[in-house]
Amino acid sequence: xxxxxxxxxxxxxxxxxxxxxxxxxxxxxxxxxxxxxxxxxxxxxxxxxxxxxxxxxxxxxxxxxxxxxxxxxxxxxxxxxxxxxxxxxxxxxxxxxxxxxxxxxxxxxxxxxxxxxxxxxxxxxxxxxxxxxxxxxxxxxxxxxxxxxxxxxxxxxxxxxxxxxxxxxxxxxxxxxxxxxxxxxxxxxxxxxxxxxxxxxxxxxxxxxxxxxxxxxxxxxxxxxxxxxxxxxxxxxxxxxxxxxxxxxxxxxxxxxxxxxxxxxxxxxxxxxxxxxxxxxxxxxxxxxxxxxxxxxxxxxxxxxxxxxxxxxxxxxxxxxxxxxxxxxxxxxxxxxxxxxxxxxxxxxxxxxxxxxxxxxxxxxxxxxxxxxxxxxxxxxxxxxxxxxxxxxxxxxxxxxxxxxxxxxxxxxxxxxxxxxxxxxxxxxxxxxxxxxxxxxxxxxxxxxxxxxxxxxxxxxxxxxxxxxxxxxxxxxxxxxxxxxxxxxxxxxxxxxxxxxxxxxxxxxxxxxxxxxxxxxxxxxxxxxxxxxxxxxxxxxxxxxxxxxxxxxxxxxxxxxxxxxxxx
Length: 568
What we know:
568 residues; mainly alpha
């Protein structure tokens, strides 16, 4: 490399380095949020009431940027949640979700998605809530924001608790507990362990539940936290009761009565009464104060349990409670569960497609990077070899010149002994993211779904299709019964703010099949199930949906957008 080449190379390197430093400096000088909002955030955990007061007095019109507006929406929603204000409208928090997702702030995005999921769950939009929690969980896990990973996992746990899906409860309770352990927050570690014990209890794993509860007791949770202490005692009492350990169950219920009697619901008090009678027998009168309390709370109850208890039939009373609990696991929970599964499936499919695209893009980038690297190395080596060869030529020429000069000087010295020469030689320079309907609908729905699958699996065997069709004719009668459909319509109105009645008023001239199609789509029935109920082919169903959608689009109905959302 010649002197000029070296100086150019050095100047270019310094310019590139300065450019990179300048870009980094500009990036680090991004706009910070309003100090008032930052102060409210700092108070959120310890003093949520103070945070809410600050935010209520904040002048949103003075927000200096879209960041302030989104941050305000996040903090106000969070403060309301922390102050036990249950919201059902997610329009405010949706702004924060959109902003922080678009701007790559994964910590605030996962926090906002958790709050959005809570609001959607309050509004019984369980499918949307599941997607929000799951998306927040994935983002927080990838970014190692363990607190919000745990919160989103708890959200999924609470959602599956509402759906009575005990297996999924255990999965997400374990995930939440693991995340909170990584976060190091003792309060949330204790809370998640309690919820994991509750999930195991709901899954009939009573011994495992008791083991966790014993650990919580031995670990001596925060002495000032009466709430978690009473909940531990309540869950221990319930689990011990289920195992038939009535004396220990009664002792734990008494602890709850001393710490937080408002936590005891009627079922707890009924269990307590049975446990006292079973544990103390004839000497149960020694617990008169407790028995009087139970009687005062349950005195006006006339259900089957109380009648059996008053007649001394305690075993039958407990069995009646179990039957009542099982009867609650009915159609609406299954409909909600199907909706959750469908939307989560869609989210996972989209996520898988995005990941495939990311992997493909990453491979292309790696390939391009490798190609560029090889090219740079090749060019650099070629330049190096070229410069090396050039330097070698220059060195040889210089040596030859020096030899010639030395010979000339020697000759001159030899010829001129009387001259003295001083000769100086110069060295060369070189250098990379609800109420349940009736048991009948649950039974019919499950049977019809099973028959639908068999119907499509054996569609080429005509004899089997005919046999299945006859079985379905019996089961599908109720799906056309006027009184039954009217009851379903009432359920939809209850859950969706009178949506079905509005639809019937807006489109009175629609055919009965079109109205039923809209009803079944609202309930979350699959396309195949609807085909069998209406006795049509899938292609026919798509045509009917298209015609109904066209009618809705051309209408001037006030709730047109809500109707169209169901058809999409």
